[in-house]
Design goal:
25% strand, six-stranded mixed sheet, globular, 29 strands, alpha/beta
Length: 620
């Protein structure tokens, strides 16, 4: 039986013949960067062969890696099959740079969890209260609900003075736990992102966020986008991904308990938000219906669960509140932005964008909200881009190009040699290439005879951001013609979405009072360059607001104030969902919006003048 060993992890595995390196890594729990989930599309899962017992390079590998890289020992893990003893090297895990905190309004503290100190009367031979529970109800002057697990806690010898943890929600008072002495109750907020998991520890008595940290979602080994996760779950079931996610969350919690000296029993409530796919995976619900039209979710109403049901390493009797989903791929994560920004309550016209592999777009006009989700693809997260990467150390995050010399000025996360380019850098690079007339409004290269321009047989012309002697990867870092096409498709999907929603509400760019951009990607984005390429509508840049991780902020708000849960639930019911695929104008608008900044020149008059574009061809 063939054997493969991974370095520097020093993990080995006996595999069946023709098992791919990628599949072997999954079985060992080793995270190889892959956006497409092992489909051989993204080209990110490259490994270096130390001892070669692999199959011959496939045509796909030759096309993506090139002969020179293969001669240097690089292979695609999803394509290379293990035939005999093999050793491969996996690049050291890089540090993910992300935005943890986001906009959070000032709110009053009214949590669902209530701590009550009581002194109860003991049961006697003559007392009317003949049970332990009755002594507690008599002390609080109210009947309370209780679970079997909590009843078992009451079976222990208890002192007269008790600390009660009661969960109050929708006319229900439930006794969660009983302590023989006063404790400090904590809440845990979870933002279940496709790429990252953000976790927040909240003091439920003061409302203060004590811990805010994030880590990469371990499910990225199954693919960086939700479609890859759905495909994997369809073939292998959802349980494996759910267990991996819960395990990683619990590992984080164990470290938290040690460093903060917190008793896990003191975490008595959890609020978790996420997109529809992550919501279902977290719950262990089959995602197959989401993978095909009409993109049906199994449940979208708010849920209240018990921590023991999901085996979370918090108080086993803690409640887990999950806000409602909207519909299709619009989950509770983007809903939090609409909630916090009070878009259902305000006069005026506002746009809210949560940009990612799937981009959620909301437009509100005097409180009436239309929303949609569009498959913008992974280009803005580095996917399908030759040297694209996430916002790790070594990523080019900002670019400026001298229009005379065509030489770039770049900034790199961590101030080290560049290894690739992340989403904000990709937007900058293409916007600057437009300004310098390296490319035209169709995305084609117009300058081809320059030291910074090179031709790649499979990917067309390319602009060199950094020569190989200036990089950490030993090769030129470039933006290719193919990369530009990927960005055109991504920004066209988003522009199409907000054009269709705008038409539903009868608004134009001139009516927009503010545009809010959420998430880590938006935090680093240059709004002016986003407008230049047509990712955002042409408005005064002062109207663009970067609001950070509103998903995590929303989860914290729901922990701290129960009334905001009702608000979120009501908003979800009121949103007018638009399925883009069902819109008759969708295809025509999409094609026209692939131009820079758009085929609809009336929407971008200032940008057209700035770029000095002579004409824009449009299919009317």
């Amino acid at each position: 039986m063939p054997r493969i060993c991974f370095k520097p992890q020093n993990k080995c595995l006996d595999v069946s013949e023709n098992e791919t390196v990628y599949r072997a890594s999954l079985k060992l729990g080793i995270n190889i960067d892959s956006i497409c989930g092992g489909l051989g599309i993204c080209g990110k899962c490259r490994v270096k062969v130390l001892k070669d017992g692999l199959s011959k390079p496939s045509e796909r590998e030759l096309r993506i890696l090139g002969l020179e890289n293969i001669r240097k020992g690089f292979r695609l893990a999803c394509q290379a099959k293990v035939l005999s003893y093999t050793e491969v090297e996996i690049p050291a895990k890089r540090i993910l740079t992300t935005v943890i905190m986001g906009y959070e309004p000032e709110i009053s503290l009214e949590p669902a969890i209530v701590k009550i100190m009581i002194e109860r009367e003991q049961v006697t031979l003559t007392s009317k209260h003949a049970s332990t529970l009755e002594t507690i109800e008599k002390a609080v002057s109210k009947e309370i609900s209780i679970s079997l697990n909590t009843l078992k806690t009451l079976a222990k010898e208890l002192p007269e003075k008790l600390c009660l943890i009661i969960y109050r929600y929708k006319n229900l008072d439930e006794l969660i736990d009983v302590f023989p002495e006063e404790i400090k109750p904590y809440g845990l907020a979870l933002d279940l992102g496709t790429t990252k998991i953000a976790m927040y520890l909240v003091d439920l008595e003061s409302g203060k966020t004590l811990v805010a940290e994030a880590f990469e979602n371990p499910q990225v080994i199954y693919g960086d986008d939700v479609i890859s996760r759905i495909a994997y779950a369809k073939e292998h079931g959802v349980k494996e991904m759910q267990k991996m996610l819960i395990k990683e969350i619990n590992n984080f919690l164990v470290k938290l308990y040690k460093t903060r000296e917190i008793n896990p029993r003191n975490i008595v409530e959890v609020v978790a938000v996420g997109n529809a796919v992550m919501h279902h995976i977290f719950l262990g619900i089959n995602t197959e219906k989401l993978g095909k039209a009409p993109y049906e979710v199994v449940v979208r109403k708010p849920l209240v669960l018990t921590a023991s049901e999901l085996e979370l390493a918090v108080n086993s009797k803690a409640k887990i509140y999950m806000p409602p989903l909207v519909r299709g791929f619009i989950g509770s994560d983007s809903l939090m932005g609409v909630l916090l920004l009070k878009l259902a309550e305000r006069k005026g016209t506002y746009m809210f964008l949560d940009i990612g592999t799937n981009t959620e777009v909301y437009i509100s006009k005097n409180g009436e909200i239309f929303a949609t989700s569009t498959a913008s693809g992974p280009a803005f997260e580095g996917g399908h881009i030759k040297h694209g990467m996430k916002a790790f150390e070594g990523a080019i995050d900002h670019v400026a190009i001298d229009p005379e010399t065509l030489n770039p000025e770049i900034s790199v996360i961590g101030n080290i040699l560049p290894a690739g380019i992340c989403g904000s850098g990709i937007i900058d690079a293409i916007a600057e290439m437009l300004k310098a007339k390296i490319i035209d409004h169709t995305g084609k290269f117009t300058i081809k005879n320059h030291k910074r321009i090179r031709y790649y047989y499979s990917e067309g012309y390319a602009y060199i951001l950094a020569f190989k002697n200036e990089t950490s990867i030993g090769e030129d870092i470039v933006i290719t013609q193919k990369d530009i096409r990927e960005v055109q498709k991504a920004k066209a999907a988003i522009q199409t979405a907000y054009k269709i929603l705008s038409s539903k509400l009868g608004v134009s760019r001139k009516n927009i009072d503010e545009i809010y951009v959420a998430g880590s990607f938006g935090f680093y984005m240059n709004p002016e360059n986003a407008i230049t390429i047509g990712l955002l509508p042409e408005v005064n840049v002062s109207k663009v607001r970067i609001v950070g991780n509103t998903a995590g902020s929303g989860a914290r708000v729901l922990l701290k104030n129960i009334k905001w849960r009702t608000k979120a639930e009501n908003i979800a019911k009121s949103i007018n969902y638009v399925e883009l695929a069902a819109e008759p104008e969708f295809s025509k608008i999409f094609v026209n919006t692939t131009y820079f900044p758009s085929g609809y020149i009336e929407d971008y008059p200032r940008t057209i003048r700035k770029l000095d574009l002579k004409y824009i061809k449009r299919d009317n």
